[in-house]
Amino acid sequence: MAQFNVGSASDFFIEVVSPLYSTFVADNANVAKAVSAIVMSYHLFDWVTGRKFEEKHFNDRYPEKPKLAADFEIARLLTNGIKHDLGNIQTRTQSGFRSGFSNEFARPLVIVRPDGSKISVDDLLHSMFYFWQEQHDKGWPL
């Protein structure tokens, strides 16, 4: 049974994930928009596969996309950390440019990976969103 016209992975992508991503891109310094887009983009994995995300499983299925697997793992850590107050990943805010600027410019929301390297929320959501867009366009071949 569908809730609010969301009864499939396609519905979830079209009705929830895509609008949240667009809303974030329009206001990439807004923490609420960033968190909402990350949590829903991450949880789309559950809808599509019927299972929780596991980095090893993703790497086995998509060996050519190890960076994307790492991005989903960051999204998992953030999602669970925010929902359960775990503090298992570091984030920071800083002065930065809107999403439409070149990636050479700093972004306002930054995630520190477990290895100490950094990724902007813009880059994290971009990689996840376009993966989901590709999967949607292919008919969810996961």
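^ that was protein a. below is b, sequence first then the tokens
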Amino acid sequence: MDLKRIRYFVAVARLRNFTHAASALRIAQSPLSRRIQELETELGVVLIDRDSRPLTLTEAGKIFYEQAVQLLQRTDAMVAAVRSMRAGEQPRFVFGVIPASFHVNVAQIIRRFAQMQPHLNIGILELNSTQQIAALRERRIDAGFGRVPLISEGVHKIVLREEQFVAAIPGDHALAEVEGPVSLEALAEQAFVIYNSSPRPSLADTILAAFAERELTLRRKVDVELYETAMMMVSAGLGVTIAPASARSVQPRGVAFRPLVETVITPIVLCCREGENDDNQIALRRVLAEYLGDQGYPVPQSLMHAS
């Protein structure tokens, strides 16, 4: 299977538009469309629903996209590793981060780590919590920041802190005018946008569990793949959702954030390989301990010895 075709498909899937993808890839739209058709012919399935606006993936397309992203990341990591060995480049340290803008603090943590370990070539891969487990085992990443505290053999996790969810509501919605916290019951009566972030489990399961535990049924559930898409729908007035409180620091236009009546929390989790305790891992734990302390958060005992 031609990797170029796979890269073309991923670009179209991400941008949801052939014209924009062709521009990003710096090719004409016609050959791009042909390459995708060739890929669909080879697989024997339709990957993209071309009648929808914006373009959407078929069920087969969603599965292929998930695997294609991981394949390209593995390929890029393999090529980078071989090239760095050939060129005698700096040793590499790669972070896995969930592809959502409410992970804003991670940038500052990585900056501090890079300053403490200037000999390293730092890389970042967008992976959800489940994908990070596989990436750690395959040594595609060296540490991951996720939201789901998964238990997996050979992977060590540290819950750095817990964060409260808040409601995300269209700015002109009646609930946005309510003084004080908004209840999950009130949100369940609206079109509720769930960002699934396959593969599961993901943050979507934490959100759905919050409603299920209170025996609340969502009147109308709207499924999307990405957090960014969910925020776009809220901004467009097409639904409501909930998000970690740090989402407020990058508040999209047209979205109002309100505290929740209920306590619904999500952890921020560091994952690394079990038993790996080299200088880089020690430096990362030291950076995390210092950062959490500077922000006024309790420092987990597992980080204390590194501070």
